[in-house]
Amino acid sequence: MFKKIEEIFSIPELRKRILMTLMLLAVFRIGAHVPTPGVNGHALSQFFQNAGNSLLGFFDMFTGGALEKLTVFAMGVMPYISASIIMELLAVVIPTLAELKKRGSEGRAKITKYTRYLTVVVAVIQGLAISIGIENMRAPDGSPIVFMDGWQFRFIATLTLTTGTMFLVWLGEKITSYGVGNGMSLIIMAGIISSFPGAVINTYSLMETGTIQIIPLIIAAAIMVGAFIAIVFMETSQRRLPIQYVRKGNAGGTVNAGNSYLPLRLNPAGVIPIIFASTLITLPATLATFMPQDPLVQKTNFFFSPEYPVYYVLELILIVFFTYFYTSIIFNPTDIADNINKSGGVMPGKRPGIETANYIDYVLTRLTFVGAIYLAVVSVMPQLFIRAFGLPFYFGGTSLLIVVGVGLDVIQKIESHLLTHNYDGFLKKGRIRGRNWS
């Protein structure tokens, strides 16, 4: 292991990227402690201690505790994710956006620009809603959380929260460009990991006071270990479709120029559907928590609160929907078949063109079904157990899946750098690159 670490830091470009990633994530963690003006941090922390096992505490986990303190990064990158979801949906119904996606890097740059603009709009709306709602909140001892007048606080808080979100978006893009891995996902993962120490201390305190029994905790730990093994297996396994490359021979016929394969992951969509579903399902419930007097919001909260079974049904539906939706966005069987044909490749037993595309689509559909069921089970089942035994909400499948999934993605990118420089993979014999499954 130490030799591998030495090899990693012996490559100047990789060393620079890793250090850049760590430095930018450190900036994120520092900013997560800069408070928003006009907020009584102590009173707000008391409020969140009571909400720790609710959906509000779950949402706070994604921001690394920034929401609990209402710091400048309290909304995290969730407005950007919401904007990304909206843009992806609009691209399906608006031909102009769909055409932009086909223009390569130039089109993607324009869509990214539009997504940033939409992020500002979403962040302003969410920031204003939070600032209005938080004025009516009280700590358990009755202390007011806001000590600034009406619209003055709303303006300052909305501006602060929106600026913080856009700074994180910029930070995430820099990590993606100059670091290792996807910047937005790494920011979310860093927020979750930063909650580890507090979660462990809180769990130990609850166990000492008798609030949590040791047996349910052991069972929960066993479930998490099982979920971890399942996540690693699913995220590293592949369905490999064989490809034969042919070229013209001297006598005018064709000869085999080599064999390869098209690697398709068992979970093609990765952790993105979980992030998308979590973002959408937390927004209404968060607003409902901030606006307890609004009857319409409270009625909406019925459908988006973990206290009701309908919440888990909605979460399952969202996860399955986004698994299929996101897979259809990142994989186009027709384009894949065309690229294989243009490179002189054929799939054994399949004619080039539409037959190859249909076969790829058939395999992808089966894999997407497996991926959707896997994501839904890993996300929802631990939550049901947690609710049944009153364990801290933190120990859930969603957080584990994001941390492991993003972590594996970073390891794979580091491994690709090592292989490029003629080093062995990060794990022995490169097992992280994927095992075949058919």
Automatic annotation (TrEMBL):
The keyword Ribonucleoprotein does not apply. It is a multi-pass membrane protein. Gene3D superfamilies: SecY subunit domain. GO terms for biological process: intracellular protein transmembrane transport; protein targeting; protein transport by the Sec complex. The chain crosses the membrane at residues 70-94, 114-134, 154-172, 184-206, 212-234, 269-290, 310-331, 367-386, 392-411. InterPro entries: SecY, SecY/SEC61-alpha, SecY_CS, SecY_dom_sf. One of its GO terms (cellular component) is plasma membrane. Keywords: Cell membrane, Membrane, Protein transport, Translocation, Transmembrane, Transmembrane helix, Transport. It is found in: Cell membrane; Membrane. Its main location: membrane. Belongs to the SecY/SEC61-alpha family. The central subunit of the protein translocation channel SecYEG. Consists of two halves formed by TMs 1-5 and 6-10. These two domains form a lateral gate at the front which open onto the bilayer between TMs 2 and 7, and are clamped together by SecE at the back. The channel is closed by both a pore ring composed of hydrophobic SecY resides and a short helix (helix 2A) on the extracellular side of the membrane which forms a plug. The plug probably moves laterally to allow the channel to open. The ring and the pore may move independently. NCBIfam families: 3a0501s007. Component of the Sec protein translocase complex. Heterotrimer consisting of SecY, SecE and SecG subunits. The heterotrimers can form oligomers, although 1 heterotrimer is thought to be able to translocate proteins. Interacts with the ribosome. Interacts with SecDF, and other proteins may be involved. Interacts with SecA. This is Protein translocase subunit SecY. It comes from Mucispirillum schaedleri ASF457.
